[in-house]
Amino acid sequence: MTNKIEVSWKGQMLFESVAPEGSVMIDAAEEVGGQGKGLRPKAMMLTSLAGCTAMDVASLLKKMRAEVDDFKIEVQANLTDEHPKFYDKVHVIYKFYGSDFKKDKIEKSVNLSVERYCGVFEMFRQFSDISHEIVYIEQ
């Protein structure tokens, strides 16, 4: 299956990326001519990683009847110093909010995403040392 997007220049360092499902604005930092009107490309990569695994986990939690009040995913990434700069170390933190957690099912859902379902996680494995952890926040 082939996926296709198109990126169109909107002036200065602003671009619009259009996919069949929708669009997103991309912009550079102000110090290099951007206007802060969109995500930067590397931030979009981290967003793709978090979004991919988040969708897996949300779906799996529902199937396993292990709902939580809320969950968030934080991604911390180390950018190399030399050009081309890339993320050589990435850490994904799954934060679950609620009480009476079904920890075995939550951990299974995260592990299934990380090890089997999330294609973006697999892509990151090709160029970075990627790790993850689960944090429970009682409410």
Sum this structure up briefly:
The chain has 139 residues and is α+β, with helices and mostly antiparallel strands. Helices cover 32% and strands 33% of the residues.
Describe what you observe in this structure.
InterPro entries: KH_dom-like_a/b, OsmC/Ohr_fam, OsmC/Ohrsf. Pfam families: OsmC. It comes from Lutibacter oceani. It is a single chain. The protein is an alpha+beta fold and 139 residues long. It has 2 domains: 1-39; 41-138, GMP Synthetase, Chain A, domain 3 (2-Layer Sandwich). It is built from 3 helices and 6 strands; from the N terminus they run E-E-E-H-E-E-H-H-E. The protein has helices at residues 41-63, 103-117, 119-125; strands spanning 6-9, 15-19, 22-26, 70-79, 87-98, 129-138. The strands form 2 sheets. The protein has a 3-stranded antiparallel beta sheet with strand order 1-2-3, with no helix packed on it. The protein has a 3-stranded mixed beta sheet with strand order 4-5-6, covered by helices on one side. A hairpin with a 7-residue loop joins strand 4 and strand 5. Helix 1 packs across helix 2 and helix 1 (41-63) crosses helix 3 (119-125). The radius of gyration is 17 Å and the shape is elongated. The termini are far apart. The model has no long low-confidence stretch (mean pLDDT 97).
Identify the CATH architecture of the largest domain.
2-Layer Sandwich
Helix content: 25-40%
Tally the helices: 3
Poorly predicted runs of 5 or more residues: none
What is the H level of CATH, i.e. the homologous superfamily of the largest domain? K homology (KH) domain
Tell me the β content.
25-35%
Q: How many strands appear in the DSSP assignment?
A: 6
* Main sheet attributes: strand count, strand direction, barrel closure: 3 strands, antiparallel
Summing up helix and strand content along with how strands pair, one would put the structural category as alpha+beta
Global morphology: elongated
CATH structural class of the largest domain: Alpha Beta
Terminal CA distance: 43 Å
Enumerate the strands of the largest sheet in spatial order, edge to edge or round the barrel.
1-2-3
Output mean pLDDT.
97
Count of distinct structural domains: 2
Radius of gyration, Cα only, in angstroms?
17 Å
Task: Say what the CATH topology of the largest domain is.
Answer: GMP Synthetase, Chain A, domain 3
The helix/strand series, from N terminus to C terminus, equals EEEHEEHHE
